[in-house]
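Write out the 3D structure for:
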Amino acid sequence: MRYLHARPDRRREGTARREPRPDRGRDRRLDDGQPLPLHRLLPDSRGDPGSGARERACTVTATRFHTPATLDEALGLLDEHGDDARLFAGGTAMVTLMKQSLLAADHLVSLQRVPGLEGVRLEADGLHIGALTRHRDVETSDLVRVYAPLLAHVYSRVATVRIRNAATVGGGLAHADPAQDPPAALIALDARVRIASRRSVRELPVEELFVDYYETALAPGEAITELIVPRQPADAGAVYLKFLPRTEDDYATVAVAALARIVDGRAHGVRVALIAAGPTPVRATVVERALEGAPITAEAVRRAAEAVVDAVDPLDDFRGSAGYKRDMAVVFTRRALERALGLSPA
């Protein structure tokens, strides 16, 4: 379970809401394919039914539950209540943390009624994915499968279908879990996030969003509203490899996304990103530079992959020591690049 937040103080989710989707994907043939109704745990049925549900008492740590109807109203509530307010969307971890008294919030600002911030659409600069789009809808989107197939594949590797039906794209990014899957593909694809406050709107490359362990570059009063993903080059090889010595839905010990094109027998446009390899997702520019323009040979790939040890800073945990994870980062970077460049079977 993941706690979705949008603040460097590690406690706020920064996303925005669901409305009818231009492209929702089509595969619903799943026994457990219903969204987790975690939001239903929050409103207290003892609240005044005639109040219009704008503010309701919350059963979790006596939090006030706000249901703004516009993004501006939601951002205004963040400004009004400051550090005492948290945005709430999918809630795939927030509720658990609150029930375990690991998170306290005087005000939860629900984004469920805020329109215009869900769905996938294609524009000139690439795919635009609303922050409240569910992971499962990215995975099954026809647009994503055609124009960014690496991204569709990576979202399919997140946790379980039940979690993917609840977790939101923006919430996952704002959560800043260094072991979550999507940032690897998003960094490899040079994606960026659109961030809004009541005062301004700005864009930030995904690789610059994460600043430390579970911390983001989002300022107080800001929320992620949209993800912008350039079209994946049609002639590029793209691979995501996830080292899972435990179960398929577990966190990776290390995982690598690699993208590269072959031009006149040489590697071009090389992008490599790793997750679970440090306090933040990592773009391995040292590997990219080592391989860019190099001939497509196993030796060139091996040498470039070995450079990844200078990019990663893994933590010791029950999945392995930092040294073991560095070794696995080299192995899986090499394998991912070999597959992306056609040196080994996909």
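Residues 1-230 form a domain with the Uridine Diphospho-n-acetylenolpyruvylglucosamine Reductase; domain 3 fold (CATH 3.30.465.10).
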